[in-house]
Every structure is written in C-alpha cells, then in structure tokens.
Amino acid sequence: MTSASADLTHDVSGEAHHVRLSGVLTMESVGALCARLKPLDGGGALVLDASAVTKADSSALALMTSLMRQARERNMRVELKPLPQSFSAIVELYGLQDILSAREA
Question: Which of 14, 48, 70, 72 minimizes the number of CB atoms within 10 Å of its CB?
Fold first, then answer.
C-alpha cells in the first residue's frame, strides 16, 4: 500500500462485524471503500478500527459515524478502537470527541 492509498477489510465472525480502515481516507477514496462494505446484520457488534489511518478528512468521519449510526439502528453494540494521532485535528474541528472516543457502547 502506498501512502496515497486506502484500504478496508470487513470480516464477520460470529455475531461481530470487524471493520478495519487504513491508509489515506479522503473524498477520493471513501466512496470506493463504501462499496466494499457488507450489510450490517441486526444484533451482535460492530468493531470499528481506524488505528492504521495515516490521513483523514471529513469523508472519513462521515464514513465512521454513518457505520456507527447504522449499527445502533440495528441494535448492535459499537466498539471503537483508539484513533491514531492523524485524526486528532479533524475530530476536534468537527467537535466529535465524545462520539469518536474509543469505547464500547
């Protein structure tokens, strides 16, 4: 993976959806990643890991918050892994610290 690429893995094991985001998540890459997402089933959990993201813009935040909203609408527990330092400025700019802080909900 080059520094300008993005990647997504979406594995389902048991009742948990594990979504791992990595690389550069910007308007240019997020659309293609969305097309690779599997439907979220009701119940179980969404484990969202963006720890390997090297650069992000508001598109990355939109993707993550959309996934979290979909999971909650389907009564899924959401576990967010700690975000990398590269997310700090954009998360603070949009005031999403409470929503995108690592926790199990």
Answer: 14
pLDDT, tens only, 83-100: 888 788 888 898 988 888
If you count DSSP H runs as helices and E runs as strands, how many of each does the chain have, helices first?
3, 5
Query: If you ran DSSP here, which 8-state letter would residue 94 be given?
Result: T
Looking at domain 6-104, its CATH architecture is 2-Layer Sandwich (3.30)
Give helix 27-34 / helix 58-73 axis angle, nearest 10°: 30
**Dihedral (C-alpha) 61, 3, 37, 16: value to the nearest 10 degrees?**
-80
